[in-house]
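Format notes (please read before filing issues)

Several people have asked whether sequences and structure tokens are stored in separate files. They are not. Every record keeps both together, in the order shown below: the sequence lines, then the token lines. Line labels are part of the format and must not be stripped during preprocessing.
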Amino acid sequence: MSEIEKVENEYGADQIQVLEGLEAVRKRPGMYIGTTSERGLHHLVYEIVDNSVDEALAGFCDTIIVTINSDNSITVEDNGRGIPVGINEKTGLPAVEVVFTILHAGGKFGGGGYKVSGGLHGVGASVVNALSNWLEVYIYRDGNEYFQRYERGKVVKPLEIIASCEQEKTGTKVVFLPDETIFRETTVFDFDILKKRLREMAFLTKNLKIKLIDNRSEELLERTFHYEGGIKEFVTYLNKSKTALYEEILYFEGTVNGVYVEVAMQHNDSYTEGMYSFVNNINTPEGGTHLTGFKNAITKTFNDYAREKKLLRENEPNLSGEDIREGMTAIVSVKIGDPQFEGQTKQKLGNSEARGAVDSIVSEQLTYFLEQNPTVAKIICEKSILSQRAREAARKARDLTRRKTALDGMALPGKLADCSDKDPKNCEIFIVEGDSAGGSAKTARSRSTQAILPLRGKILNVEKARLDKIYANEEIKAMITAFGTGIHDDFDITKLRYDKIIIMTDADVDGAHISTLLLTFLYRFMPDLIKEGHVYLAQPPLYKIEKNKKVWYAYSDEELNKVLLDIGRDGNNKIQRYKGLGEMDAEQLWDTTMDPDTRILKKVRYNEEDSSEIDITFTTLMGDKVEPRREFIELNAKYVQNLDI
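Then the structure lines:
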């Protein structure tokens, strides 16, 4: 009997595993938190904070304190009602123990505990418990302080009263240390990552105060987020690096069929839209029915207004949604009792009633606003009409840049040195700064799998340009044609001709600027290339060290010092500081930067949860306002290494 037949014959009742309690979470953590990387680690904090925010949404909590402790554990404390401690009839266990040890248990399933809630549908607290080395919960209610401890999801101390407290003191404090056997990549929390998410939560919950404290260093690091204006202040924050077209922030709110809707929006002088949607304070990066309702409402309302006021001529077509949303920053936030999400990670809302609720409230209140504020209405309509005309010009230009077949007579860019392998999975393209470096790269490359596209100078800053100008730019047209995917509405990732798009620029300020220009273009018009992991940054060396006919390369000052320490510092050392890629001959460029076996590539990653912060960063770096850029540079100068400033 073969080994395969043996295995098949052994498959019986005894091979069916039953994972009890939270064992399933520890066995397959990715099913519950998406990933056990740094993102999943921080997600643990968000789940516990979400429970506290739910108390705030219910009207029982106004302060949440999140502390990173010196041992890298996390404390989340709120002044809500405190998790119930009485015995649960169905399980015979204290309610708090049920919440932390049983999946799909909690006060969020129609029992009257919460009208709306976020979290992982009642699995949040138990999942955090399961993935922690240990977790302790303190509950303040009924004049007592209750305590229970768990280790890797299991109770090690029964619920007990450990002290008395003031009768009016209520709340919950959860302390946990992530399990290093689960989060093998890192168990170190990043203050800035937590800061961004907690700020967002505070914006979305009017008058809620969230404090973040870091106790890991001698100097206490602390931030407090408290916004009485809620999402109106969120729009102001997102537009801080842009110039608003009018002072007012349009704000609409109301409840229809049990769905509470909040919308805030304002136009700025940029050419990109920034729309962010939330359900029960949970980010929905893929939108959903609530965002569809918003888009429908503003498109119809602005077109009706423009027609009525004769801002659109009779022979002109209606404004498209994209025309109206050009330069718009908007927050669409709904609170709904039973949110139906597509997928466990809640990327998209599916409730049909949310669409009607948002459409109804925005249509009615926006119509009233436009009638009462004709100056603002005219500004928005005129910008939309300009966008419409530029879009038509862009359509004509776009037709010329689309990749056509040989029969159509449209060849690839003349300066592109393409690769011979036609399987995109095997191919990569280097976007190279300058003709000199491009020449070396063309000589150095592996012709079968590596394509070279040299760029002349700095490409157009797309942050300050409409589509028609972008399509007219020769360097951008060359990239669009070479990649094969089209851009914007025409983008189709299945037509991508290269698995890796590698940006290769000089290791100096100009090179960093060119990289940023290229990343801005890709982020604004081909974001899926970044989301799907196709974009990389090459890392050319900064130094070449020669001694006794031997050669070493160093990619940072630290590496240079290490090499010199190893080989000895003396007069026989010859150190060359590369000012640019053009200083390397083809062999050096291949050995250090292009050879897949020896090179270093940095993958450009995109986190949906940080979309608003990413947008702010690009606008700050590439927008018109100087002051925010100066502040950004001063704040981040300490991270700059090895650039000739």
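For reference, the curators noted about this record: DSSP finds 21 helices and 21 strands in the chain. Residues 1-19, 403-410 have pLDDT under 50 and may be disordered.
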